[in-house]
Design brief:
Keywords: DNA-binding, Transcription, Transcription regulation. This protein has seven helices and three strands. It is mainly alpha-helical. It folds into three domains: 47 residues, no CATH class; 86 residues, Arc Repressor Mutant, subunit A (Orthogonal Bundle); 38 residues. It has a three-stranded antiparallel β-sheet. A hairpin with a 7-residue loop joins β2 and β3. α4 packs across α5. The protein is globular, with a radius of gyration of 20 Å.
Amino acid sequence: MPGQRSITEAEKLAEAKLGGMPVRHEQMAVVANIYRAASAVRQHLENSVLRESDLTWTAFVVLWVIWVWGESETRHVAEEAGISKGTLTGVSRTLETRGLVRRAGHPSDGRLVLLSLTDEGEELMRRVFPKFNEEEAFVAGQLSDEECRGVADALRRVVLQVEEHGEERRLALLDGAEPAPRRSGRRPKA
């Protein structure tokens, strides 16, 4: 990306800053590069194939989840999309306004909301996903099919580590306490 430091330069700067600090460099590189790769891929896809359909990454992921899983409760869509229920509310309302998603009450529990794709939403996903997948192939273009399988497998293992042991680790790090509430970046005025 023009005007930004390269990944190689960032790694050299981090190494110089950390000096003799006892850190696990390989694991740090994995996590840093997961973040960098996710950001680069998201930005590329939003500025290319998703832009022509006026979709954000989050909106596309919500559509994808509903497209794959079919009609689903909002809490399940939010969980699968990796977003909060509050974020899903805003995204799903926007998609509903555009005629891509339908919201309906749950037949046996009036507190729950179900989301499904409209015919227009189904058509959009059938049209957009092949283009999206072409960009996935572009993004992974320097990797062989075998390397793609290896990277995908390694990333699955990272996700499984957090899913299977993350809560236990968090409890140990916080001595069993709940995490402090998240704060916005704003601080109260004195």
